Amino acid sequence: MGRVIGIDLGTTNSCVAVMENGQPTVIPNAGGYKTTPSMFAISQDGKRLVGHLAKRQAITNARNTVYAAKRLIGRRFETPEVQKAIDLCPYEIVRGPNDDPRVRIGEKTFTCPELSALILREMKRVAEEHLGEPVRDAVITVPAHFNDTQRQCTKDAGKIAGLEVLRIINEPTAAALAYGFGKKREEKIAVYDLGGGTFDISILELGNGVLEVLATGGNTFLGGEDFDRRLVAHLLERFQEAEGIDLRADAMALQRLKDAAEKAKCDLSSREVTEINLPFVASDARGPRHLNIEVTRETLEGLVDDIVRQTLKIVESCLTDAGLAPDGIDQIVLVGGQTRMPLVQNAVAELFGKRPHKGVNPDEVVAVGAAIQGEALLSEDKNLLLLDVTPLSLGIATFGGHFAKLIERNTTVPVRKGHIFTTTRDNQSAVKIRVLQGESDTAAENDLLGEFVLSGIRPARKGEPEIEVSFDIDANGIVSVSARDLATGKEQSIQVNATGTLSDEEIHRIIDENELYEVQLKD
Amino acid sequence: MTESRQDTIERLMREGLNHYGMGHVDEALRCWREVLRLEPEHADAHDFVATAEEATHAGGPPTAYAGGPPTAHVEPATASQPAAAPAPAPSFDDRSEDPLEGLVTEGQRLVREDDLEGGLDLFEAVARRDPMRLDVHGHIESVRSRLVKQYRERMGELKDVPKLRMGLDQVMKFNLPAHAGFLLSLVDGDTSIGDIVSLSGMDVFEALRVMHGLLEAGIVAVEPMGTRERRHGGLE
Fold it and tell me: What is the mean pLDDT of residues A431-446?
């Protein structure tokens, strides 16, 4: 086995790290950036763009630029998150044959794992360029609240990208690993993750190498880009006041403003004042018009204060879910580039009554943790490992629309549990089992992972046959099911085909397509 | 009444341009080659054949109205005209009183004198006022093809990287339109000409034209890519 890379596959940005000489190294891309925008585009002249190049034309070519595909992965088309994305995103989201959301660019329709694979492949390439050797094995991170389907789809994405995904781990787990928490004593940790497009808060309990997720919360449509949008709106107003020109319908001007606003926002994390200078941003009868505006940190903070307060409300709610008061938290970890903002750091410190932990770059902390996990898997050093727990309970639908939990949430994974089922009618030859994941007692309110029919049951009176159904959750949090008729000893091969995941056939077709495409490129 | 040799040549030249304007390159080539058979030294016919053949080899025949290859785009004012219903091209004689004809003739003269930009400006002006002049679109396509070739010869390889040659204070002295300012904002010393053209979202011809203008004005200079690695990642 070669080296194992750790990939933080983010909604807005992705990052890759590897262990070198016992130390985690975050790998910069060819442009020198340690994070790569999780964006994919097809330019108007037909070129495929990934990362920074895709981002630089995201507004001028909005229809053909895909971002935040992670919000869609593993979800059903009619879920609120997908419907909201359809409302907000300029690119076209269509219903796939598996009831999954897909993205159409021109004539081509991309599955969500395929889109994530494009980003993963780029991260793989970044790592290979740095290491000077092919990379195959990876640990990929996902949000703690991802269900089985979302994890399975992420794994599929890795496969399409040519990666062997050794482990899917939770992002807060990776962050905790990067800080080396939980090795010696029990600690309660709050991981405050404010990325570009999403906000996640996780309250974890760590001890004896096991990580338990006490509660998670968040908003999948709140992040650093909201900060950028506020600043852009402010700049548009000031320019209009000064020059009498409205740039809101000018895609080229908006692209420049968005890039400049993001840079100014970053500058204002370390400086009190910054200047935004966009020469020739517009022209009218008087000639070229230039945008030159000074922005202070105070102005920016005034523009986004309510967004930061919004995140704190979610944190408070999450603490309540965990049954903890803010002072019950031992460590606070900040994740995501937006947490560099002093306003965010101060607000979090004020809420918890203590300063957040510092030391690892918030953009890189998750990838670093994934690389550490990768190294641990490679060396089989159990001391390095943190064990995840399943974020959601697993069970089946029972008579009357109820949900019978067979594996409770927060059970350490991997885990295997069996349950004996029987028939409800005389001479019943088959039973249908619906596998669900979630916390509601009502079956319909949980996520349907899949359903299967166990057939070939010997004829008998109702209640007599004994069928043992075993539920497994592997170390990645991915579910599989097997069933055995105890009377005959006959074990049936059962596959749970979750809605939204790709069949092996589809995955291979996509891989083949990509290979063909790459051959064409070389020509 | 039989057509004179000169009339036949003029008719074939115009028919060729009509075909070319509609994206029918083979038909256009057939007309212009017929002209060369009648008058082997006909300079315009030679130019048109060379341009059309080059465009075909570069990426298939252009479609003047509905997108097509990079060199085939036209101004938004004319691009909005429907592709499927072009009006029959008026015959040469029909336009003898056409007030725009003088502009077309002048444009042709400028092109013959190698003032391609000047000729293109006139053809585009005519096309804006009478979008149904297919022959003018043919001229536009032809001149654009030749200009793209010139731009690329002067700029070097598309993989070469343009860099700003002067400070912002000096750049501000120029009277650049907003789209040139936008293109200039993409010049970061890392991104190649080809990538800038892709990123701009602009009509490829327009992007090259603006970039060429920035080079000619001395605002940017091109650095050969050489063995430099692709930066910013991800262009496939």
Answer: 85
